């Protein structure tokens, strides 16, 4: 589906012109209106493609990591990530207003489509049902994001007027969640499986995507039995789609492997038409980046196990603090750039990245850590999602995966453990499968060992962290686990390049505060409450 219709611009003109019409019974002949736009499948598809383009943002995808303990947004406050992580925000924060409007704009497009697509009388009935299901999925996705951040939010399933929008009240979260789940069930009924789409439609929403998103919604609500049952529909039943782990963890995120067997839902980009350049401010400067605006933390790096399956703090792990990146979980090298990292360039040549002060033998020393420089404030850069085929300034059209099969396995493992049912069979299908794909070979790292439910919980949660690192999900996990009050209180650290007298030499990158009394829910945007007196505020704000 890497294509855009010329009708998209026409649809945006339509949105503007509809509000300007004075006589509702007359249709101007020189512009698209409500009464003359909905005449062909192509025009309807243009509106649906607009809804797709509004579903999620690459900026949210990357910078949400900076709102968690995985990364630090150290230059500026991109997408409000630094403020959110540090707890230094209020209802006027731009990100909060922006995301509220972003999701409700997407909902409006979906509602307009659903209310008008039946005007197209020449469309194939099965195609129309599928397109309606796609729109219902996208609308459900928006409401899921809204209730995840804000809890109670206004819920409506039709396009409302400006006057109505100024008097709408918040709907209880439980009711919003129920709506989302029912919409996903309904959408799944009319969506095809992933293997049924032709190449021209690759990337469209599938039955498997509806089921996987439902599992995520249930996961965030701790409805463990339902999570397990929903995941099993994708793990044990090919009638809902055919998915498997892609053999290479590194290759999973490379452009030549788009639409691989692990992808369930992705954010689509198109060369020269819809691209992003986040890596211009995430990659090492020595390979062409401008500065660093999002840096992995030492806390993330420390979460990667040794290749024998032990934590770095475990007795007998073999961890060497002076040589910390050897014999580690192979996913570390595929995700995080560290001192003496061998960066593979598009021509397959190697660029050694020097981040430790005094380690670079060159003259410019662009990536060496120094307070106040444009280099990484933690001594780390990001490798995952680097596109070797990107254009100047790292302009990339590489799709960003929103849900992948590995996440289904991790959701299943977590749910089974919370049900006290995580046994060797479940372990082998989930954690062992992920570690095997990652490149672990030592039996202690791969094989199930009886442990308490608490210990297994910590193992599964950490596995989720390292498998999905820098993919924008960590912030939601620490909030639903209610661990944000621990991991977002105190210093976020960088590599051991600081003074030995402070935190054993690990860089103090960012001081953070998380108030458990209010920060688990975002405040309703100040400007929204100024125009709508029926919008109540969340506790503590």
Automatic annotation (TrEMBL):
Extract the PROSITE patterns matched here: PROKAR_LIPOPROTEIN (PS51257)
Primary localization: membrane
Mind telling me which InterPro entries this protein's record contains? SusD-like_N, SusD_RagB_dom, TPR-like_helical_dom_sf
Give the signal peptide as a residue range, or say none if absent: 1-22
Annotated ranges, domain RagB/SusD: 290-541
Subcellular location(s) per record: Cell outer membrane
Q: Does the keyword Membrane apply?
A: yes
Keywords tagged on the record:
Cell outer membrane, Membrane, Signal
Domain SusD-like N-terminal stretches: 25-219
Tell me which family the UniProt entry assigns to this protein.
Belongs to the SusD family.
Name used for this protein in its record: RagB/SusD family nutrient uptake outer membrane protein
Q: Which organism is it from?
A: Mucilaginibacter angelicae
